[in-house]
């Protein structure tokens, strides 16, 4: 349900303060991303941060985790970050901020995110999980085993592995974009790019032997970023994007392709989330043992 709905807040109030160990949240990060900093829009997504801290105030968990883009700390000249710190201090929490790279935890993707961890002022701060040794798998090592698809085709045994349709002239245009290239490297310039010099990653093709770029809510649409398959002339499928986010290979997403893409792109990569959850569990287990001795 919508967390603004009064019934949701009333349900949360049924839990007494301190009954919940951990609250993890990440209000959509688009308003704090570099692409939005110049606009500095204040909308409902931004106020979701305030709603998150209302929930923290009701539940009073032993730990809270807040995930967002690193630029949250500098958005609107630090205004949002100062308000978050003030809200936490007012409720008796101290916060530490950690910038983590997904590839350090086995995720085949360049993705940097800010994880803010809050604990009561008299509790020990929570450290971050150790990074994994070794290099994560490449894009093609992650998705290369999936059946090949042309634009508009779908896999008969996996509804998540369906490629978006592209007009014939777009497919021909995608054919001309080399691996690692983008819209400026194609054989022609689309009318929407005439006289434009920015957004280099738009209509970008991934490098098969490299890591994926940050998977976003537009991950199945080549016009939204570097989301062309390394060797096939189409955008990524939901399944391919989900594997690059380290979701299990049989995970299903609800709704249409736009909704599914948002669910994939807005998620914390599973392997990164798993490493963080294990670290929180160890912290909670250690503090419980201390309380019983």
Describe this structure in words.
The strands form two sheets. Strands 1-2-4-3 form a four-stranded mixed beta sheet, covered by helices on one side. Strand 5 and strand 6 (158-162) form a beta hairpin. The protein is α+β, with helices and mostly antiparallel strands. 34% of the residues are buried. The chain has helices spanning 6-12, 34-37, 44-59, 79-90, 139-143, 168-175, 238-244, 257-265, 270-292; strands at 22-25, 63-68, 93-101, 112-120, 154-155, 158-162.
The Cα radius of gyration reads: 21 Å
Helix content: 25-40%
Largest sheet: 4 strands, mixed
Number of helices: 9
Provide the spatial order of strands within the biggest beta sheet. 1-2-4-3
Separation of the first and last Cα atoms: 41 Å
Number of strands: 6
Tell me the β content.
5-15%
Uncertain segments: 39-43
Q: What multimeric state do the chains show?
A: single chain
Strand-pairing-aware structural class: alpha+beta
The shape is: elongated
Rounded mean pLDDT is 88
Q: Order of helices and strands, N to C? A: HEHHEHEEHEEHHHH
Blueprint (SSEs and pairs):
Layout: H1 6-12, E1 22-25, H2 34-37, H3 44-59, E2 63-68, H4 79-90, E3 93-101, E4 112-120, H5 139-143, E5 154-155, E6 158-162, H6 168-175, H7 238-244, H8 257-265, H9 270-292
Parallel strand pairs: 1-2
Antiparallel strand pairs: 2-4, 3-4, 5-6
Descriptors for this entry?
four-stranded mixed beta sheet, 9 helices, two-stranded antiparallel sheet, 293 residues, 31% helix, alpha+beta
